[in-house]
Amino acid sequence: MILVVGATGVLGGEICRRLAIRGDHVRALVRPSSDPGRVRALERLVTEIAPGDLRDAPSLGTACAGVDAVITTASAVPHRFSAGRNDIATVDLEGTMRLIDTARDAGIGHFVYVSLSGNLDPPCPLRDAKRDVERRLRAAGMRYTVVRPSAVMEAWLAPAAGFDYPRAIATVDGAGDGPISWIALGDLAEFSVRSLAAPAAWSTTLELGGPEAVTPLEVVRTFERASGRRFAVTHVPEEALEGHEEAATDDMTRSIWALRRAGMRGDPIPMTGLLSAIPLALTSVSQYAERVLGKVPADALMTRTPRSGRGPVC
After folding, report:
1. Under a CB-based contact definition with an 8 Å cutoff, are residues 245 and 264 in contact?
2. Which domains occur in the chain, in start order?
3. Contact 206, 134 (CB under 8 A)
4. Cα dihedral sign, 56-111-282-18
5. What letter does residue 230 receive in the DSSP assignment?
6. What does the alpha-carbon distance between residue 256 and residue 75 come to, in Å, rounded to a whole number?
7. Rounded distance between C-alpha atoms, residue 45 and residue 4, angstroms
8. Model confidence over 177-199: pLDDT tens digits?
9. What is the pLDDT of residues 22-70, one digit of tens each?
10. pTM listed for this prediction
11. Greatest CA span in the chain, whole angstroms?
């Protein structure tokens, strides 16, 4: 039995789907406040739904009973953030440490933890929590895998993050010349699943990226070629990012701006050595562009041919 924590999220749900395809028995931890539609979708995939919450120790004990491995993707990501209730301190730090301790006490054999890239390492609440959890996991005595992905395409190359490909508009931090090993969400999910059976992933940290390091401006050109349109590009200078970080009123917002500032310098991750041990055909930025643009209605792609704008904004 494999317990997936964060199962109602996009990444956690994809991990559940891939485990189910492999024929694994999957138990999904689901909070009482979870979206009912996501829960119904999970019920069609997994073996069991375990009501629980990272902030509720007894529910974690029940969820971990009889489990062989845990995979957790849980985080107080921005759209679920609630200061003092669902935030970095209560979920990413205290809640995940509580889960590690419970899994250790239950005799669970393997714990997979999705963290942050080792290159995107600015001092900020989210980074600090993730690194503290990594240290707790390494000291717990279980077999573990710390998964450190680079920028996930579905999160960072999406309209909500300022990469509005349906309208051919892109916001780029800094000069946009730092190479990043963008990784597809599906590839991240597959590595997380395969780490359970791959000795190369046992009791180690996996720095994960895509097949090549591509700068944000190269990403824009890739989407321009795939869509046949010119993108309007706005650059955000580093001092503006720093100002937003200093003005942030909560830990999550402060962390997001800090990570964006760190990402300006790039996040290249060589994958050749890991792929020799865990073979996987990685998704390129070009393939991602073709996939997501193929889902945009044709009339939306024809609404405008924007002029490229490169003036910095705050």
Report:
1. no
2. 2-149+184-208 (3.40.50.720)
3. no
4. negative
5. P
6. 13
7. 12
8. 999 999 999 999 999 999 999 99
9. 999 999 999 888 888 889 989 998 999 999 999 999 999 999 999 999 9
10. 0.91
11. 59
